[in-house]
Specification:
Strand order of the largest sheet: 6-5-14-15-16-13-17-20
Oligomer: single chain
CATH architecture of one domain: 3-Layer(bba) Sandwich
CATH class of one domain: Alpha Beta
Bound molecules: adenosine-5-diphosphoribose, P-hydroxybenzoic acid
Radius of gyration: 21 Å
Number of strands: 20
CATH topology of one domain: FAD/NAD(P)-binding domain
Number of helices: 12
CATH superfamily of one domain: FAD/NAD(P)-binding domain
Length: 389
């Protein structure tokens, strides 16, 4: 098979890029190792920046998001004693959209066939070839048969564990990493949220987050040491811990219910440079990971895909190779700012095992400064709502 862009991975990055390229009249095919139901079974964060919302609007795939998503004009930081509200709408004039990433993936997935976007699920042993040439290819196996896709470009949208990033020689690359000494234990339940806006709490027992998927479905997290086993966390234990860490006011409004999903996810900051090598462009988690504090993962994938689509469109329309060459620097400039924000918010809101009284005093001082400074709140608000693309 011959196409213009071979996309590896049908997560949000791959599907979004596929739809955007298709809308520009650029031929592409998406290769996904898993089956569609498996992809939809992954529960991820749920706060969309303007860039993500506007790409769904541009594709005309925003109807369900607009009907079911919850626009939020603010969120809260809790420091054990008070709620510090960050008025994102008042400070930036913009809102975020609370809508699960799983739902975004579903909307993109369901629109693929009607729009002629070819997505091949169950593609095994995907391998990249000749990425330093102008005619790279991807091979894969499906139902026992070998296949080859020849393309002008390959887009590596295959997440942190996919083969794309690994195809770039290490001599041409640089990796930056920070692994955190805790994970987030998440619980999803069909109960009304305890608050109409998100609450990120720094309590002496650790971090907690009260989030939501809708007015009847809640998503909560507590941080736990990486040695914890999910089997040791009964639903009751999770609810008890949330009630303590979120503070008495939120606790009074928590409705408990059975977990629809409960799991522990490690936290990591990671950046791979460059995001392009030869004819291969990396987008989303294949090139970078952020800790979930701030919910930047999907939104960064969306901005990468926006830049990648812009570069590939310039190439196919005007034979403009410079924009392809410039893709990595453009995407990375935004990636690093989101990395910085996610890391800062993680450091501010978690108790690190190695932290002593000095580090704790710094957290107290910073939260107190944020509570009293419109400038500090504005900085947080503009990062939370999403920096310009
Ligand atoms: N061959 C084909 N597909 C692969 C392979 C492979 N060898 N390895 C991984 N994939 C697929 C995965 O099965 C997955 O569907 O690539 C996709 C990558 O999707 P995500 O991990 O969701 O990554 P991305 O699309 O970059 O998502 C960006 O959205 O879902 C969130 O946590 C994610 O915040 C991140 C953001
Ligand atoms: C979520 O709703 O799952 C969520 C929200 C905000 C975050 C992380 C996760 O920062």
């Amino acid at each position: 098979m011959k196409t213009q862009v071979a996309i590896i991975g049908a997560g949000p990055a791959g599907l979004l890029l596929g739809h955007l390229l298709k809308a520009e009249g650029i031929e592409c095919v998406v290769l996904e190792r898993q089956m569609g139901d498996y992809v939809l079974g992954r529960i991820r964060a749920g706060v969309l920046e303007q860039i993500t919302v506007s790409l769904m609007e541009r594709l005309g795939l925003d109807a369900r998001m607009k009907a079911e998503g919850l626009p939020h004009g603010g969120f809260n930081l809790a420091d054990g004693e008070r709620l510090i509200r960050i008025d994102i709408e008042g400070l930036t004039g913009k809102q975020v959209m609370v809508y699960g990433q799983t739902e975004i993936t579903r909307d993109l997935m369901e629109a693929a066939a009607p729009r002629g976007l070819e997505v091949i699920y169950g593609a095994e042993d995907v391998a990249l070839h000749d990425i330093e040439s102008d005619l790279p290819s991807v091979t894969y196996r499906k139902d026992g048969a070998e296949h080859r896709v020849e393309a002008r470009f390959i887009a590596g949208c295959d997440g942190f564990h996919g083969p794309s990033r690994k195809a770039i020689p290490s001599s041409a690359a640089r990796e930056f990493e920070r692994v955190y000494p805790f994970g987030w234990l998440g619980i999803l339940a069909d109960v009304p949220p305890c608050n109409n806006e998100l609450i990120y709490a720094n309590h002496e027992r650790g971090f907690a987050l009260a989030s939501m998927r809708s007015e009847t479905r809640s998503r909560y997290y507590v941080d736990v040491p990486l040695t914890e086993k999910i089997e040791d966390w009964s639903d009751a234990r999770v609810w008890d811990e949330l009630a303590v860490r979120l503070g008495p006011e939120a606790a009074a409004s928590i409705t408990r219910g059975p977990a629809l999903e409960k799991s522990i996810a490690p936290l990591r900051s990671y950046v791979f440079e460059p995001m392009r090598h030869g004819s291969l462009l990396l987008c989303g988690d294949s090139a970078h990971i952020v800790p979930p504090t701030g919910a930047k993962g999907l939104n960064l994938a969306a901005s990468d895909v926006f830049y990648a689509c812009e570069a590939l469109t310039a190439y196919f329309r005007r034979a403009d190779n410079d924009s392809v060459i410039g893709y990595s620097a453009k995407a990375l400039a935004r990636v690093w700012k989101s990395e910085r924000f996610s890391w800062t918010l993680t450091k501010l809101m978690h108790r690190f095992p190695d932290d002593g009284p000095f580090e704790r005093a710094m957290q107290v001082a910073e939260l107190d400064y944020i509570a009293s400074s419109v400038a500090a709140q504005t900085s947080i608000a503009e990062n939370y709502v999403g920096l310009p693309v």
